[in-house]
Amino acid sequence: MIKLAVVGATGLVGSEMLRVIDERKFSFDELLLVASEKSVGKKIKYKEKEYTVIGMQKAVDLQPHIAVFSAGGGTSLEWAPIFAAKGTFVVDNSSAWRMSPAHKLVVPEINGSVLTGEDKIIANPNCSTIQMVLALFKLHDAYRIKRIVVSTYQSVTGTGKKAVDQLMNERAGKEGPMAYPYKIDLNVLPHIDVFLENGYTKEEMKMVNETKKILGDPSIQVTATTVRIPTIGGHSESVNVEFHNEFELPDIRKILENTPGVIVQDDPSKNIYPMPVNAHGKDEVFVGRIRRDETQPRTLNMWVVSDNLRKGAATNAIQIAEYLVARKLTH
């Protein structure tokens, strides 16, 4: 008897979570749609049934078994412990708990087995990190990663509805609210999240630190440049990875083809390679442009694309919830 709460149900990721729950046939007996006070009372139609959005305290009082959060870091820091104190498993999509030593950072295909009944607050990784580590974790097992250089090309959907509206308004020649400090249509912004004292952005440092935590190897060196581009459908990444051990390209392809959640699209002679327009609405991580870096030994180049609202957020969170139920940790 699963009582499921979706916190932040009126946002982009919250709406995607509802779609993923439906598509994956995640079984629940009661669904609570939760949002901030300004959205309380709003009606949301889901699977031919109309739900009334409720506030945070009411949701806590109803004691859901699982609450998937996509409501921002501040909300999560305030409310996740309150839910957890009632026995609720919180799967949080913000950055609030990701680097906390006391909380697990989980991509189920990689490290779902670390979860126990004591893990009441579980962190969902950054969208860009998820797709990269899913493409790399089996390769790390085989060859041990030494260093990663990653440049991202991230969809405006990663910022939220305001950013999508800005792009569409600019494309239509209309004035409107600005999510970014500059126009985004026909432009590229090398600026995601706030700049830190070291010159990197917070988004870039998320990729650095989360990769090490998820793969369980603090020795991996990671350097990232994260960039916003005027696309909808998914994030793209150019990944250059140096291994400790030598590899052969056919073995790399075979490992990737056998990595759960990964689809190899790599036939340049037929113009086959991953693109966000084709990843949109899909749960998989797509990998192509697989080739050696000819400038140094034991180094691989690859192009990684995934829908950031799906595997990068909603799908991964619901997969964690599925794992909790399958392991009977919610009872």
List the keywords:
single chain, 331 residues, alpha/beta, Rossmann fold, Dihydrodipicolinate Reductase, domain 2, 2 domains, 6-stranded mixed beta sheet, 5-stranded parallel beta sheet, 10 helices, 13 strands
Strand content: 15-25%
CATH topology of the largest domain: Dihydrodipicolinate Reductase, domain 2
How does CATH name the architecture of the largest domain? 2-Layer Sandwich
Main sheet summary: 6 strands, mixed
**CATH homologous superfamily placement of the largest domain:** Dihydrodipicolinate Reductase, domain 2
The total of helices stands at 10
Number of strands: 13
The radius of gyration is 20 Å
Residue ranges: pLDDT <50 for 5 or more in a row? none
| Percent of residues in helices | 25-40%
Overall, the morphology is globular
The domain count comes to: 2
Distance between the termini: 9 Å
Structure description:
The chain is of the alpha/beta class and 331 residues long. The chain has helices at 12-23, 56-61, 73-85, 108-111, 127-143, 161-172, 202-215, 249-257, 276-279, 310-326, and strands at 3-7, 30-34, 43-46, 49-52, 66-69, 89-92, 121-123, 145-154, 221-228, 235-243, 262-264, 285-292, 299-306. Strand 12 (285-292) and strand 13 form a beta hairpin. Helix 1 crosses helix 10 (310-326), helix 5 runs parallel beside helix 7 (202-215) and helix 5 packs across helix 10 (310-326). It starts with a strand and ends in a 5-residue tail after the last helix. The model has no long low-confidence stretch (mean pLDDT 96).
